[in-house]
Structures
1.
Amino acid sequence: CGSFVSFAEMGNDIEFSNDIIQAAQTIKRGGLILYPTDTIWGIGCDATNSDAVRRVFDLKRRADSKALITLVATEAMLERHVAHVPDIAWQLIDAAVHPLTIVYDHGIGVAPELLAPDGSIGIRLTRERFSSTLCRHIGRPLVSTSANISGASAPLCFGEINPEIIDGVDYVANYGRNNTETVAPSNIIKLTDSGVVTIIR
């Protein structure tokens, strides 16, 4: 992947809005989407829909004991899906230079399949245009997991995504397909209710 972004990639507001509407309608029907995030392309669905989440696991051929990351678009949405957000979390989010996923002790109001055996949940506050707008539009958190079969390398741009993944979702976003800028997965830390920070990645 290189670093070229075409004018077509930028698109216009109407094309972007239609893309968001179609993705949102798919998610609200319980479908899966393939979409650009603040890191790499992801497989997404409604994070409150257990059937949809299980479809993601099946598509990736991933053990359901491995929890998936969830995206939120606002601070209020984060607080709705974490039993307790330690004060230091806001400092870490504000100071982060790269996308930061935080694993909180107790996730709430999401599909149980997204929780680790200890009840923790990995959530990232996204500010990327497509994922943030989509999340706000549906008013719910979004599942975000790398667009690859479990065990295979994560694609660094749309052109590297396995056709099996593309065929396995119900909608593929148009936005971001021509963006060949190299990106990387998010940093991940675990944050306990008492404020203890552990770096995972």
2.
Amino acid sequence: GTFEVVGLTDPSAADLEVLGSPVLGGDELLPSLYAQGVASAVVAIGSNSRRQQIGRSLLALGFNLPVVVHPSALISPSATIGQGAVVMARAVVGTLASIGELAIINTGAIVEHDNRIGESAHIGPGVALAGGVRVGNRTLVGVGSAVRPDISIGDDSIIGAGSAVVADVPSGVTVAGAPARKLPSR
């Protein structure tokens, strides 16, 4: 379950290395890296839509997108985790939970039983999702938020940090507060 890090690609390539691994250049190198035998890639991009876009490009090139799980994370044997998803330190993924492709379950987040986390969604650090919650594709649930059981949150929405979500949230909106309320569009 371990990989050798060959390096990173970064379109801005501002640094020569990151955490001891070399920055090889921009994303234009990906086809040649694959041709040279680099078969797996991890998409480490915070923007949900950009992570999804890059992930799909990597899959089209033939790359494998492994699931990355920190050793201190607790994952139920009945949970499913999609390719390219990342589960960070001290996160909990409960019974029959389903994590979508390229999703991030960040440090200390709790994804309880029967949750469905969409593709490229981001569950922030310290978030607590009660049982039966549905989180849409590319949605961000901000740090320290709590979501009551059986809530549905649509695609491309943002839940502000520290929010208490007690009612369904439609797609494409930003909510915040306790209880969470829709914020005006900018």
3.
Amino acid sequence: HVAPHVFHELGADVVWHGASPNGMNINDGVGALYGEQLAHAVQTNEADYGIALDGDADRVLICDGQGRLYNGDELLYVIVRDRMRLGRVAGTVGTLMTNYALERRFAELGVPFARAKVGDRYVLELLEDRGWLYGGEGSGHLLCLDCHTTGDGTVSALQVLAAVRRSGLSLAELTADLVLLPQALVNARIERGFDWKSYAPLVDEMTEVERELRGAGRILIRPSGT
């Protein structure tokens, strides 16, 4: 009811997909959780860009005309780099899940970077604590506190598109100097109350893997919020 009209009123030719809610089909095969579907729709309709929101519209995923998907880490980078061209960026917040390459790239650019616990509310808390304006998660929760007070996928998408317009460059060009490191996510079920932090085989394995990585990567083991 909102996003397609916003982009249309700003001058885009909009093709709608998954915008007919019936009360039961939230995130049902479309949206930010299904990037491949977005890429297919963009190429089928020969669009310049595709924008996918999740059901409550706080997450965003963007696809370019070649069908390449850009996650929240890459989109946050585009926004921050755009703001850097306009003025100073005091710092940026990610989460424990943020790709290590983004942290290293910001360090090269002299932009302070801090990690919050996973969850956009924790990103917001750390931003407010540091007095910074920009942060987000790889899942597509992005915060630009100079534009809004919470995660809003439509507003976040507009910040990315504004960066594209201002720079005259494509998303591929804007992210060319950010090469994400390989990242794997594995879920393991454990019994409630199991003290995994003190489980010797796990501790030994983590120590060995960290030794092999030699500081070139990260290991994160955390309990899921769900």
4.
Amino acid sequence: MLLSIDNVLTAGELADVSASLGSGPFQDGRTTAGWNARLVKHNLQLEPRSEKAKALREMVTAALFRNGPFNLAVRPKLMRPVMFTRYEPGMEYGLHVDDPLMGGPPPMRTDVSFTLFISAPGDYDGGELIIHAYQQELSFRPAAGSLVLYPSTTIHRVAPVRRGVRLAASSWVQSIIRDTEQREILYDLDIARRENFDAHGKTREFDLMSKVFANLMRRWGEP
């Protein structure tokens, strides 16, 4: 499932993250890339062991886990530490697929990837997140504070930045629902039953949808 979620960060959080990323310390992004992705990765990353990175990770992670659509769509079990990237003119990240297993031991399976856009679209040209899905290329350059999530199985890239600076945060999640299509079914069903409850209260239809939802979670979930 591909999903764009607006306003993941508050205006204050967005300003704090953007200001903090203005000065670094940054390192070559290739230090965290797999052996083949290293060939096409050209960006900068906030030094992950710095005190600044730790503080920003805490802020962004808290924002993610309070966001309803993110949790309904991803159903996180484990998540890698959030990584902060900087793209200057000429930088890009060519076609690649994310590593299936990260971290450890034991390693974490990557089911869902996401990019949280820190820079506003007017701050830079180029730098689109381009995902290969449904037999086409889908391009994303949303408003600052917006998040795009997508299956980690997809081939994707970041187009070259032509002007300005593109700041973003990203990470990978192991979901309690491994299968992408099953996650989407549960997301749609959960949204439908919640909207039914908001409109009509606790009805027989709501109870039946809740029963189906609960039993699918029992069948598909990996706690």
